[in-house]
Design goal:
The protein is built from nine helices and no strands. It is mainly alpha-helical. 71% of the residues lie in helices and 0% in strands. Helix 4 packs antiparallel against helix 5. The chain is globular, with a radius of gyration of 20 Å. The longest helix is centred in the last third of the chain and has 31 residues. The chain folds into two domains: 74 residues, Orthogonal Bundle (434 Repressor (Amino-terminal Domain)); 83 residues.
């Protein structure tokens, strides 16, 4: 059994659901299909993953699937570990501070549209720092969605504010 099937079982059991109870929470996944997905006899498809994430109120399932099981995603999507908000914010601020110090070098490197051999080391360091910022931002989004599912953030108010920013 692969890591991904173990993960699905762990999430279901974390919520105290039998396969029958979990299936009742989903429209298209029967207990038999869930057993096959969990035991690696049938691959989950994106619609299955979406349904499981919604039923279990576990948004991390979607990222885990993309990072580990999706044929394209596992090459491009990093796994995001859910962390406490303060840890995520500190990582993000650290990376933003590092990038602030590197921005002049990035401008200098990019102004001719090429990366020379003497620039590539700095360019790679800058790329890695940008990846850290992206992971921190994605981690914050995962944390937010998880907190909304738990009722710790007012989802209605959050969505209202998101819409107002999109209109600007």
């Amino acid at each position: 059994m692969s890591e991904i099937e173990n993960y699905y079982i762990q999430i279901r059991k974390k919520h105290g659901y039998s396969r029958d109870k979990a299936s009742e929470l989903m429209d298209t996944i029967s207990p038999e299909k869930l057993e096959k997905i969990e035991n690696g006899k049938q691959e989950a498809n994106p619609a299955d993953i979406m349904e499981m994430a919604d039923a279990y109120q576990e948004p991390a399932i979607r990222n885990y699937y993309c990072a580990h099981d999706c044929p394209m995603g596992k090459f491009f999507v990093p796994e995001i570990k859910l962390k406490e908000l303060e840890v995520t914010v500190l990582h993000m601020l650290s990376s933003l501070n590092s990038m602030n110090a590197m921005k002049e070098r990035l401008i200098d490197i990019s102004k001719d549209g090429r990366i020379d051999d003497h620039e590539i080391g700095d360019f790679v360091r800058i790329q890695k720092e940008l990846e850290r910022i992206t992971l921190a931002a994605d981690s914050m989004m995962l944390w937010t969605e998880t907190m909304m599912n738990m009722g710790a953030i007012n989802m209605e108010k959050y969505n209202e504010l998101i819409e107002s920013y999109e209109e600007e």
